[in-house]
Amino acid sequence: MAMAAEKESTSEVDLESALLPSSSVESLPLLAHSTRSRQHSHLRSLRRSASNTTSQIAIVGSDPAPSRASTTSPSSSRSLATAVGNFRLIENEEFLQQDWRSRGRAHILRYVVLKWTLCFLLGALAGAAGFLTNLAIENIAGVKFVVTSNMMLADRHLWAFGVFAASNFVLTMFAAVITAFFAPAAAGSGIPEVKAYLNGVDAPEIFSPRTLVVKVVGCIAAVSSSLHVGKAGPLVHTGACIASILGQGGSRKYRLTCKWLRYFKNDRDRRDLVTCGSAAGVAAAFRAPVGGVLFALEAVSSWWRSALLWRAFFTTAVVAVVLRALIDICHRGKCGLFGKGGLIMFDVTSDTIAYHLPDLPPVIILGIGGGILGSFYNFFLEKVLRAYNLINEKGYGYKLLLAATISICTSCCIFGLPWLASCSPCPTGISEACPSIGRSGNFKKFQCPPDHYNDLASLLFNTNDDTIRNLFSAGLIIYGIAAPSGLFIPVILTGATYGRLVGMLMGSRSTLDHSLFAVLGSASLLGGSMRMTVSVCVILLELTNNLLLLPLVMLVLLISKTVADALNANIYDLIVKLKGFPYLETHAEPYMRQLTVSDVVTGPLLMFNGIEKVGNIVHVLKTTGHHGFPVVDEPPFSDSSVLYGLILRAHLLILLKKRVFLPSRSLFGIDVSKQFSADDFAKRGSGKHDDIEDIKLTAEDMEMFIDLHPFTNTSPYTVVETMSLAKAVILFREVGLRHLLVVPKSSSRAPIVGILTRHDFMPEHILGLHPSLLKSRWKRLRFGKTSLNKVFCDLC
């Protein structure tokens, strides 16, 4: 905040997100009027401000989007040095004169057409990325498994293990090296980063071109290395990266710019594109277009509206069409070991589904167990990730050592466990060869005699199209290494194992097929771990291609989510917290109602005069990391001390860089309209951004002045100092603010009390200032032994 407007150091700040939010400011070629007309309009605006010297309460206009919190350990990675996006229009004098929205229907039509065009391109690129990722994984893993199987056929068991383990090791280390050294932000699934970004937190490099490349290549290598990690999460991150890059409006560095694309150089439109990108990622991973839209709505988005629903649906529809066209190529046998390229997970058809009322108790039990196991999965994974964080913080060598250890252990388990399994005779009446010799397939001979296959080897030694039916998953201890890896597929496979086990235990007491129990088991564990209901339900239905599953899947999801919610938080919220992202929840905690906004304002408050000395601006920018500063007019420029508005750090840097200086403190300056272009104030893309240390000024420059009025947001959101903190946090989140100005209740005081940013609404900050409120902090209902006993006693 401007007083603590962001508590991090300037060097850590991602200045990109401090730039003008809305597509407003991108078209900010300053001053189209003459100097004289500008001075008159300026004086009129000053008189309007001076007429209300109280508090500008409830001014609506905004400088938006949430701010970021300070990070934990500097060594734990730059990804924690987060900034924020601006999801509201900056309404200053120049914007009101230059906004393209007021120039006629042609500009608006062009903007609308470009929005839909970008959604089409996003869907096409995300679909192609999903297809190529799956194609590469299937072929790389397929070659590895075929070579290993051939060696097993020749009774060269040690050589087979050596080739298998070495291949996995090389692939894992390749993924770990490119992630650790070139794009640390590409590690993990990426869904927590996307979720945090759509909540208003913009971590450095999470959507950069480098992150995109490493995410795709690293995901291919990690999944091909037999690490039981999924590609759904990385594809969601991939879709978000593609969306963000498209929304940057080209690149001046590579001379890939277009006048039209300036409309999208802002956080608000980029946020919408990233939302569509996350939906496209799920659609590409599971061929589930409707499920992708619902995933974006339910799991990652913090702001939603009907117009965005249409665009997201259009984007995922394009993904489905592109996938269908590309998979048709595979049907003609041109995809190598990729086979038919199908992504249907379980072959559940209408002929195998028949259930009755007596089948409901086993399904209810399955849902309760899934909720318990899902919450335990989250608990255990959190502990594992905390341990991994301690290792990864020690440096690159430890990151690579951890990845190497996991790879070797996984290879030993995958190769060693089938030796413990018995051989089964090949089934009759099947179209597929049994055993699968010299090719990828579902019936692995491994060490078995002719006409027999190894069940466990068939589950473990397979390409992606076959292993997606795998009922074994070691993904729990693998997630968290320095490589792109998702949780969705491991949870689905673990849930399928659990469901099939329950089906086997039920035996003749249930008429449900074991494959149906596997689907329901996956649903229950997804509901228990990720706490998604509608999106998971639709994704599973689209995967299995069978609507008859709907009632049972709905029942299982509702039960498992309800049970798990009583035990701990969902997995993505836990990871967001572990990564240190200052995520704003949808609710205000009860203790916030006991506080006013003035209770959490901290100092010192730094502000600028409407016409400020260059030296003062430079000093403040060098000694603080704040992103927003109040601008106050004092006599003789106003009748009394009055809050004129808010100016962003990024805009001050631009003014210093352009040397828009005045020789004296006077309103009658020079015409600066020709010194700026629309791109100067637009949202920057990935890469190097302006820094105060890079701007060289002379001693003479430091004695000059800058008129901040034309560049100041004259309508920031403000609240009176007596407003409830609970009400303020809801306003802050729902509107998507970055700064919230606190003004005094009395007009006899200074025109501003302080500034609130996202950091000030974090429980750690509030409870640190008011530790006595710790006991009244909101906690989810947790059912322990004591609470259960109390509930039952009260009922009796």
Automatic annotation (TrEMBL):
<dbReference type="InterPro" id="IPR046342">
    <property type="entry name" value="CBS_dom_sf"/>
</dbReference>
<feature type="transmembrane region" description="Helical">
    <location>
        <begin position="273"/>
        <end position="296"/>
    </location>
</feature>
<keyword id="KW-0129">CBS domain</keyword>
<dbReference type="InterPro" id="IPR014743">
    <property type="entry name" value="Cl-channel_core"/>
</dbReference>
<keyword id="KW-0812">Transmembrane</keyword>
<feature type="domain" description="CBS">
    <location>
        <begin position="712"/>
        <end position="772"/>
    </location>
</feature>
<feature type="transmembrane region" description="Helical">
    <location>
        <begin position="547"/>
        <end position="567"/>
    </location>
</feature>
<keyword id="KW-0851">Voltage-gated channel</keyword>
<feature type="transmembrane region" description="Helical">
    <location>
        <begin position="338"/>
        <end position="357"/>
    </location>
</feature>
<keyword id="KW-0677">Repeat</keyword>
<feature type="transmembrane region" description="Helical">
    <location>
        <begin position="400"/>
        <end position="421"/>
    </location>
</feature>
<feature type="transmembrane region" description="Helical">
    <location>
        <begin position="363"/>
        <end position="380"/>
    </location>
</feature>
<dbReference type="InterPro" id="IPR001807">
    <property type="entry name" value="ClC"/>
</dbReference>
<feature type="compositionally biased region" description="Basic residues">
    <location>
        <begin position="35"/>
        <end position="47"/>
    </location>
</feature>
<keyword id="KW-0407">Ion channel</keyword>
<feature type="transmembrane region" description="Helical">
    <location>
        <begin position="111"/>
        <end position="137"/>
    </location>
</feature>
<protein>
    <recommendedName>
        <fullName>Chloride channel protein</fullName>
    </recommendedName>
</protein>
<dbReference type="GO" id="GO:0034707">
    <property type="term" value="C:chloride channel complex"/>
</dbReference>
<keyword id="KW-0868">Chloride</keyword>
<feature type="transmembrane region" description="Helical">
    <location>
        <begin position="157"/>
        <end position="183"/>
    </location>
</feature>
<feature type="transmembrane region" description="Helical">
    <location>
        <begin position="471"/>
        <end position="495"/>
    </location>
</feature>
<feature type="transmembrane region" description="Helical">
    <location>
        <begin position="308"/>
        <end position="326"/>
    </location>
</feature>
<dbReference type="InterPro" id="IPR000644">
    <property type="entry name" value="CBS_dom"/>
</dbReference>
<dbReference type="Pfam" id="PF00571">
    <property type="entry name" value="CBS"/>
</dbReference>
<comment type="similarity">
    <text>Belongs to the chloride channel (TC 2.A.49) family.</text>
</comment>
<dbReference type="InterPro" id="IPR051280">
    <property type="entry name" value="Cl-channel/antiporter"/>
</dbReference>
<keyword id="KW-1133">Transmembrane helix</keyword>
<keyword id="KW-0869">Chloride channel</keyword>
<feature type="region of interest" description="Disordered">
    <location>
        <begin position="34"/>
        <end position="78"/>
    </location>
</feature>
<dbReference type="InterPro" id="IPR002251">
    <property type="entry name" value="Cl_channel_pln"/>
</dbReference>
<feature type="compositionally biased region" description="Low complexity">
    <location>
        <begin position="64"/>
        <end position="78"/>
    </location>
</feature>
<keyword id="KW-0406">Ion transport</keyword>
<dbReference type="Pfam" id="PF00654">
    <property type="entry name" value="Voltage_CLC"/>
</dbReference>
<dbReference type="GO" id="GO:0009705">
    <property type="term" value="C:plant-type vacuole membrane"/>
</dbReference>
<dbReference type="GO" id="GO:0005247">
    <property type="term" value="F:voltage-gated chloride channel activity"/>
</dbReference>
<keyword id="KW-0472">Membrane</keyword>
<keyword id="KW-0813">Transport</keyword>
